[in-house]
Design a protein that fits this description.
Elements lengths: L17 H31 L9 H27 L7 E4 L4 E5 L8 E3 L1
Helix pairs in contact: 1-2
Keywords: Membrane, Transmembrane, Transmembrane helix
Amino acid sequence: MPSPFALPVYISTIPLPAALQAEFDAIVNVLETVFPTVLIPLAICLFMFTKPEIQRKPIFILNVLSIMLGLVFGGIAIATMVSRHPAFIGAECAFIGEGRRVVVTSWDSGAGFSSS
């Protein structure tokens, strides 16, 4: 039985257009990979610029734990992103050195790579 004091939560059922959803997914994928990589230099700076007597305080330990937790969650997010899109389906890459354009197609279609 729900609490009489609980407020109802309304979840939007309006779907996003496909183009907008693709842009949103691309932004989220970039954020999922960039933020964990920012934590590595942050951890290095935390250890380099903190005095040893401050490193024994609880706030320093909590900062280290939060960086470690962010790295773990970032690794999980990257792993799930790679497992969902093993070849970044539909992405186009340009190789500057050879002047060739390579298109990565869906691995399900059996086409693989095509170059021109």
